[in-house]
Each structure stands twice: as structure tokens, then as C-alpha cells.
Amino acid sequence: MNQLYSVKEEFPGSSSGGKPPPPTPQPMEGLHDIGPPPFLTKTYEMVDDSTIDHVVSWNRGGQSFVVWDPHAFSTTLLPRFFKHNNFSSFVRQQNTYYWTICGLPN
């Protein structure tokens, strides 16, 4: 035993009456899962809404989206999904996520 620290050592079957140690607690499945950031989720929901395809929609390949009416996008959609109506801020944040995903400095 270490002279500086008094530590009681227990081994299975020693002084614990021969009982196996209790199982180690495990976190609930999915408890600490991290989903996509809210900005990306909201953007996806907005672009994927086919009732507003005249304002914003997926491109033909479905790999990016096009804002067809920037004025309506800013005045109608941005305040519904975000706490602002600034198109430039939306584009800036979109670019930040793009460069982060690509692993390149922005």
C-alpha cells in the first residue's frame, strides 16, 4: 500500500461476500447524440418546402439550392425561420458552414 495515500483495494470474491461487482452504468442510447446544427436544420426545412419553390428551391441536381426571389426570401422566410431578415447574414453563415464542411479555412 502506498504510504502517502490510504487506499483500500478490493478484489472480486475477497471481502465483498463473493458477489460480483455491480454492472457499470451506461448512458441511455441516443442521450448524447448530436444532430445537425439548428441553422442547417432550419435551412433544410425551408428549402425542402415545395410550397415556396417560387422563392427558394433545390437545384435540378438536388445538391444545392437557389433563392429565386431574394426580397421575398428576406422579408417573408428568414423571419419565419430565423431571428433576423438579413439576407447577407444568411449567406455569410451559409458560407461558414460550407467552408467548415469542406475542411478549408474561410
From TrEMBL:
Residues 1-35 are annotated as: Disordered. Keywords: DNA-binding, Nucleus, Phosphoprotein, Stress response, Transcription, Transcription regulation. It is found in: Nucleus. Residues 35-106 form the HSF-type DNA-binding domain. Pfam families: HSF_DNA-bind. One of its GO terms (biological process) is cellular response to heat. One of its GO terms (cellular component) is nucleus. Homotrimer. Belongs to the HSF family. This is DNA binding protein. The lineage of its organism: Eukaryota, Viridiplantae, Streptophyta, Embryophyta, Tracheophyta.
